[in-house]
Design a protein that fits this description.
Blueprint: H1 19-24, H2 34-45
Length: 47
């Protein structure tokens, strides 16, 4: 017989934050040049 004892694996609880709730809590920042670039882009694509 072997002298090796069966070892039960440890149970580890890991708590992860709710990343999406935290991420979406704040209003997104918009590039201050967005409106001007949007118009230029739409004009270029419409040609």
């Amino acid at each position: 017989m072997s002298n090796i004892k069966a070892v039960q694996p440890e149970q580890i609880t890991v708590l992860l934050p709710d990343m999406f709730q935290t991420f979406l809590k704040q209003a997104p920042l918009v590039n201050p040049h967005y409106e001007a670039v949007k118009v230029e882009s739409e004009e270029a694509l419409g040609r």
